Amino acid sequence: MCRKFVLLLAAATLGLASGAQSTSTASPPGDTSPALHASPRSIVLSVVVEDRESHPVRGLKAKNFRVTEGGVPQTIARMEEHSSQVSSLPTPPFPSLPPGTFTNYTPIAPGETLNILVIDALNTPLKGEGFIRSQLLQYVRHANPNTRIAVLGLANRLILLQGFTSDPSALRDVVERKLIARSPTSPASPEADQHGVPTPSKHSSSVASPAAKGSQSAVNLAANLRAFEGEFDSLETDFRVQYTLDAFNTLAHYLGAFPGRKNVIWFSGSFPLNIVPDPSLQHPFDVANTDADELRETVNLLSNAQVAVYPVDARSLIASSASKATNANHVRSFSFDLSKVKQSQAAEHAMMEAIAASTGGRTFYNPESVADAVDSAVAAGSNYYTLTYSSTNTEADGSYRPVHVDTIGVDAKQPLRLSYRRGDYSDNAAAHHANESQNSSASTPEQSRAAAYAHAAMSRGGPTPEDLVFRVRVLPASATTETVLAPGNELAPVVPSNGPFRRYDLDFLALPGELTFALEPDGHRIAKVDFLAYVFDTEGRLLGTGGRRITLEPKTNDASKVARSLIGLHLEVSVPDRAETFLRIGMRDVTSNRFGVIEIPTSAVTSLPPATYAPAVPTKFQPSPAPANPAGRPTPPEV
User: Fold this and answer.
1) How many Å apart are CA 565 and CA 567, to the nearest integer?
2) Residue in 235, 227, 221, 193 with CA at minimum distance from that of residue 207
3) What pLDDT score does 353 carry?
4) Which member of 10, 405, 418, 612 has the greatest number of CB atoms within 10 A?
């Protein structure tokens, strides 16, 4: 993602505080490719070079590396060395935003290596209140304050517990004070509309998520942790592999928006998923008992996001925790007990080694704690080289491309150990542009996977995607409640149709540079964008939805106008008036199924003054007709 666009977005005159608003359409460049983002197949490899004692080897040059793809030599166009001994560039400051305004932008320093800790409760055979909570306590109390890391929990879905920060104090406060309410109901997959996002027709037992970027509130973190622990009992053995694959797919989508290398530290009591395809087979992804197409997509997403996986075997900690347990209910069994885990340990260690080797990571066994595992993995993944080359194989046939890297001309007294991604699969042109379905049900595997990701992106508690960076102002429409539902909103059946509701005005501002302008049969280019708002209660149930789709049609082929134009849209959402609710606000590029998402508790904006608007100023780019506005407020212009 071209994150430089966010600088324009941060510097743009929002005009919301004063009431004035303006918009203009995007103007994609006049190329002849099917979509705006078509580009040559450029490959970026992260290569860790170590000696036999696992010490990093520094000071190598591009001439010291040789890269082949499918046995064919490749020309290294660029080489960079990343070292923990070199001070990183400062992280860009977070933009100053007025009250009620939020963004999904995460500042990342140039060349920064991101670290992600995944605490896997799904595949860890112990009760959440015991082992998982104790490990979280160990981590937040002993985490290195100089390590910038995101913390996610894996239950029946991926749950964001802490965003990218070097200060775990917010999570520590929640865990230590045990701000954990009762568990939510058993998880159920809500129905999805034709866009793959949840509909309010059924309860959704998803989980809480943090507010938009910035400091996380205790209510958000408590809800996240409560849901993370509360879902343990509902997990089914037969679904663990599929849940794990879904989680890695969501994680890969999320991390793909950030530049540079990412070290994913997978802390788990067992490793049921083989994410390593076997290229020797006719169907390489049949090695796993799961959706082969989703596994292929996940492997490619991890590859494109430069993700190295560091599996951490927590069995020694599990055994220690189990031996101290005095209540048999503290031991939870999926379809196996600890003795069976030990019997399968050799096989799973082989799987761990394969996962680490194929992604450029390393395995760790018998750590003393989560914090110890994090420190070891971060140290191992902080010294590496990035090699960039343009593949000589330009066929978009979806075939596997094995990659081999070795060193030449290096005066080493002993063989060096290289860790890097061993290959990936090229794009499949036949599968492109299959995300948008005109029917309510997905009719192809590609559309099914697109709908599944759309559901994950807009479900409460997961990572907030940043493929599309935007900002949104959320303010009450008035100081009183009402019984009229906002236009275009839908309610869950359990919510009384006569309210009372609190209506909120949502004013989006976004840049079109990351949208996909697809070529239509008539020769015109258009981009379709969904603006979404979903309402959840504190138990993670979906209460209502609001949204609108717009179509952008460029008026010129001047590419420079893309960076200068802005997209503005006004949306209204009705929220049932109750103690606490959460808004998950999204922006979706329909053609590419890429998202930007923000989530906030409504308590963060309820007490703010209502929104005010100046009369709309017509522009030469006329929007589609605006929805009825019973409150009589002028609707801001849109594209």
Assistant:
1) 7
2) 227
3) 87
4) 405
